[in-house]
Amino acid sequence: MAITEWSEDILLVDLGSEPQLSEDLSNLLAMLEGPGSQPRHAVLDLHQVGMLTSTNIAALMRLRKLQQLSKKRLVVARVRDRVWAIFLTAGLDELFETSTDVGTALAAVQLGIR
């Protein structure tokens, strides 16, 4: 997982494919929930993710809840077709803010556009 501090308030997170994805999501949650952590908006780049497990979905939901509680945005970007099918089947497309590309997601978060 590569985390780029796009700005003071925005993280760009490039998630890897399984089995790395589970570890990446756990590390991201620990980073955002850990002692002394500062709430930040997050843009998740899923271009490398080829599949989601129920564990991955649970971690994404936990991350979504954390971001909502801290009043920070979570945008999922560049979702591959196979993963998008899982999003649609599970109804995740209605729960998560999504974007077709990272640049648009970052601009939307930075400018406060929904």
Characterise this structure.
The chain has helices spanning 20-33, 54-69, 81-90, 102-111; strands spanning 2-5, 10-14, 41-45, 74-77, 97-99. By secondary structure, the chain is an alpha/beta fold. It has one domain (2-111): Transcription Regulator spoIIAA. It has a five-stranded mixed beta sheet. Strand 3, helix 2 (54-69) and strand 4 (74-77) form a beta-alpha-beta unit. Helix 1 (20-33) runs parallel beside helix 2 (54-69). The chain is globular and about 35 Å long.
Q: Strand pairing plus helix content: what structural class?
A: alpha/beta
The description of the largest β-sheet is: 5 strands, mixed
Number of domains: 1
CATH architecture: 2-Layer Sandwich
Order of helices and strands: EEHEHEHEH
Helix fraction? 40-55%
Query: For the largest beta sheet, what order do the strands appear in spatially?
Result: 1-2-3-4-5
Q: What is the CATH topology classification name?
A: Transcription Regulator spoIIAA
> Count the strands?
5
CA distance, first residue to last residue: 26 Å
Provide the CATH superfamily: STAS domain
Give me the number of helical elements.
4
